[in-house]
Structures are given as C-alpha cells and as structure tokens.
Amino acid sequence: MLSEIKNICCIGAGYVGGPSMAVIADKCPEIKVTVVDLDEEKISNWNDSNLDKLPVYEPGLKEIIERRRGKNLYFSTDVNKEISSSDMIFLSVNTPTKTRGLGSGEASDLKYIESSARQVAKYATGETIVVEKSTIPVKTAETIEKILITSKKEKDPKSQHCIFHVLSNPEFLAEGTAISDLNNPNRVLIGGENKKAINFLYKIYSRWVPTEKIITTNIWSSELSKLTANAFLAQRVSSINSISALCEVTGANILEVSKAVGMDDRIGQYFLKPGPGFGGSCFKKDILNLIYISKFYGLYEVANYWKAVLQINKWQQDRISKIIVNKLFGNLSNKRVGILGFSFKANTNDTRESPAINICKDLLEEGANLAIFDPKVNEEKIFNELKNIMPNKNVDVEASKSAYESADGSDAIVILTDWEDFKIIDWHKVDKAMRSPAWIFDCRNILKKADLEKTNLNLWQLGNNL
Ligand code: NAD
Ligand code: UDX
To answer: If the chain, 466 residues long, is cut into consecutive pieces of 10 residues, what is the mean pLDDT of each piece?
Structure first.
C-alpha cells in the first residue's frame, strides 16, 4: 500500500508538463520527478546543456532546470519504464479540438489522454495515483477510470495488487508568467473522491502553497471550473475589444475606459487590456469545448452565448487587417510591412492561435511582403504557422533579426505582441528606415503619441481616435 510519494512521472513535456514539474521538483527535493514524452527532439532539448534550447521559453524556468536537472528532475522518452516506477502519474498531454468525426471543430480530442491512460494501465505497478492535469471535458475522469480498470483486468484478470485513484488537478498557469503562477498560485484545485489520494497531492502542494488556497471539490466541479475560468477570462478580452471599436468611432479612449471600468471592485482591473484578440492554445479550444458540452445537453442558448465570445475575437483580427489595408490606400501589393511580435502574448515562444497568424495571412493575401520580428520565435516556427494556415499559397515572409531590420524600407509597422522590447524602440531610427508615408499600427497600445513626436510617422492605435 502506498505510504508516501517518492516518484512522480508526468506524461507530456510541453508548456504545462515541463514548467509545472520543474516547480514541484524544486519545492520537493526528496521526490524524484521525471517528465516523459514521445517526442524525442523535445526531450533531447529539455536535456540539452545549452539552456537556450529548452523547448519552452518562460522567465525563471532556465534557472530551475539548471538547479534541479540531474538531481531530482529528469526528462526521458522511456515512458513505460517511468510509469512502472511511479507512485503518482500526471497526465499533461495535449487535448486539442477534434478535427473529424462526432463533435468535429468543437469537442476535445481525447486521443492522447486515452493512449496515455492505456499505457498507465499496462505498465503501472502497485497503488498508483493518476492526476489529470490536462484541461478536459467534464466527466473525463470517469473515462480514464474505466480505461484503467478494464485494461487492468485484461492484463491480469486476477490482479488485485494494482489499484488506481484518479484525481483532477487542472493547471491555471498562464504562459509568460508560468513560474511565478506556479510558485504563487491564486488557488490549487484538487477534485476527487478518494480521501487518501487527495491527501497525498494536497501534501505536495502544501509544501509551498498556503493551505487556504488549496481547495478540494468533487471531480466534476474541478473539471468544469477550469473550462469556466478560461471562458470568463476570454469573455473579458472580447468585451473590452468590442468597446475598442466603439472608442475609435466616438473619440473615447479605450485605455481611459478600461481604467475607469476596472476600478470598480466588482469588475476588477485585470484582463481588460484591448488588443488584437486572445490567442494561445487554451481559450478558443476550451470555449469550443464548453459550446459542445452545452449543445450536448440541449442548452443551445448557452452555446450561442459563448460562441459570441469567439466571434468577437475573430472579428477583432479581421477589422485590424481591413484598417491596415485601407490606410495604405487599399493596396498592399509590392509593399513591405514589418510585423513586430508573432507569439500570442509577451514572454513566451508559443505561437498557437496567435492573432498574428490571421492578420499576417490577410496581409499576405493582399499581396504584402512581410518582415516579421519576434524576440523569441524563430523563422521556422513563423513559416510553419503561416504555411499551415495557407497551405497552397506563396508565403512571402522574411524573419527579421530586429525591429529596425523589419522597418527597413517598410511602408508600415504593425505591433501585434506586447513585448517589453517594443516599448524602447527608437522611433526616429525607424522613421529614417521606412518608406513614406509610413504608418505604425499599434494594436497593443504600447506607444504614447509623444514617442513619435518629431517623426514623420503616422500612428493608428487600437481603441483610440487620434
Ligand atoms: P503541449 O502540446 O505543449 O504538450 C503536450 C505534450 O504531450 C506534447 O509534447 C506531446 O508530444 C506529449 N504527448 C502526447 N501524447 C503522449 C503520450 N501518449 N505519451 C507521451 N507524451 C505524449 O501542450 P500543453 O500546452 O502543455 O497543454 C497540455 C494540457 O494542459 C492541455 O490539456 C491544455 O489545455 C492544458 N493547459 C495548458 C496551458 C497552457 O498555458 N499551455 C495552461 C493550463 C492548462
Ligand atoms: C490562459 C489562462 O490565463 C490560464 O489561467 C490558463 O491556465 C491557460 O490559458 P494563456 O493562454 O497562457 O493562459 O495566456 P493569458 O495571459 O490568459 O492570455 C491569453 C490571451 O489573451 C493572449 O493572447 C493575451 O494577449 C490576451 N489578453 C489577455 C488580452 O488581449 N488582454 C488582456 O487583458 C489579457
């Protein structure tokens, strides 16, 4: 019988598995933590002595890897071996939106969850706690439990010595602030039925998280809370973005409106920054999933409510592209446009669902040549994202090494990610490099009008009728 947690294995070495396990290893030096993945290149990069090669860029992550790797933190492709020697197994695999079959385009594709659960069933030994860390639809724990129990029986019908407990422990970290979110979470949520299993996980988190912030719920509440939290956050971004358009036509200033609204304690100041729409791997996928679940239960009005949040997000990107084309005399062919920022937000190298992808696609379709600069996203990733969204088209893009290189000879600069680096650009230098009449489209509201004083640059700013 399990009496303490000595070995943890995490299946999935991505944006959640890597940072979250690094922090557990850092806080619990006596526990051996191994992160496994089928992707050999990813694991090799996690193990690379050159820490700039880590597959995930997160402020503060490098330092933890340097401290713990090889001591009690390991990265491996030997999934089966690590499963068999672990007391607790986290499932941090990806749960993308289904692209075919029932629920295509909305429901979560649970194939990676299912295959990892089958592997756990096959190779686990003794009493094992299985923790869902991936974001999954309500009642997935039930599926995992069924797979574990039925596969166990297939393996050895008389087997009594392999017991599984399934817990839900959704991850609330945001990319770009993952390490500080993990070190100081708003809350840790543990859903489950088995008190002993809950207690083991509770004890791990209570090493650094104040106990009043660790809440335990039934498993379904835990799963639904995660989807709901993301939907509420995304809804705030869509709400403020809808008002940004109204500001542009009325003369109100979106930053002033956002500040005034956010100062109401009941509303709060966070997640009211206007921008080119939310990106990232979670919001769209989780809202789609909520829409699917609502429809499944016949709640069509609920589904439509959340659909509108996604529609506003796409609309915000479309309208930005149209504004750029209009300001450049309705024609982009043979024009060079500098794009500053390709990641979906600052401080991450993640480009999944980045608003930059749709906007770049629109500009390319208008005939523009793009010079894209992002401090942490490499050329290959940029090219692959664009090729993916326009498979049969010519992707005329160049990855620039600096903001100035992307400005060189350009007719416009479009700021799409709120990187700190873009706040200290020398706009006089940019002015000299660009072709007149030159436009700066600030889609993240990081510029002040004064920054462009004494330049010939024209400024368009989201939510601001200049
Ligand atoms: P990711 O794509 O970065 O990583 C998932 C990894 O799992 C991949 O490296 C993949 O190769 C691996 N994998 C898939 N099947 C496997 C298997 N059978 N065996 C071994 N490895 C396997 O995904 P992510 O961004 O880390 O997200 C993981 C989950 O966490 C998702 O459900 C997501 O919704 C949720 N989540 C993500 C974030 C975020 O900010 N990225 C935050 C909270 C929750
Ligand atoms: C989100 C949730 O915040 C996190 O709790 C969950 O675990 C995973 O999904 P993430 O997608 O990493 O995290 O980033 P987040 O900070 O939420 O930003 C999402 C998008 O919204 C980004 O594109 C960001 O630029 C945009 N955003 C955010 C705004 O446009 N305005 C804001 O005020 C806040």
So the answer is: 94 98 98 98 98 96 98 98 97 96 94 95 94 91 87 61 90 98 98 96 98 96 95 98 98 97 98 98 97 97 98 98 98 96 98 98 97 97 96 90 98 98 97 97 95 96 92
Whether the upstream peptide bond of residue 274 has omega within 30° of 0, thus cis, is no
This prediction has a pTM of 0.96
Atom 20 (ligand 1) nearest CA: 37
Return the biggest CA–CA distance within the chain: 82
Looking from the CA of residue 283, the nearest atom of ligand 2 is: 9
Q: Which two tokens stand for residue 436?
A: 């007149």
Give the span between the Cα atoms of 398 and 418, in whole angstroms. 21
**Could you give the strand order of the β-sheet that contains 88-91, starting from the edge strand earlier in sequence?**
73-76, 32-36, 7-11, 88-91, 127-132, 163-168, 188-191, 214-217
Can 282 be counted among the known catalytic residues? Answer: yes
Instruction: Scan for tokens 């069509």, then name that residue.
Output: 300
> How is residue 444 written in tokens?
């993240």
Pocket lined around ligand 1, Cβ cut-off 6 Å: 11-17, 36-39, 42, 79, 92-95, 112, 115-116, 134-135, 171, 173, 175, 281-282
Q: What is the pLDDT of residue 161?
A: 65
Contact residues for 109 (Cβ-Cβ < 8 A; gap 6+): 95, 96, 97, 98, 99
Quick one: which of 77, 85, 71 has its CA closest to 35? 77
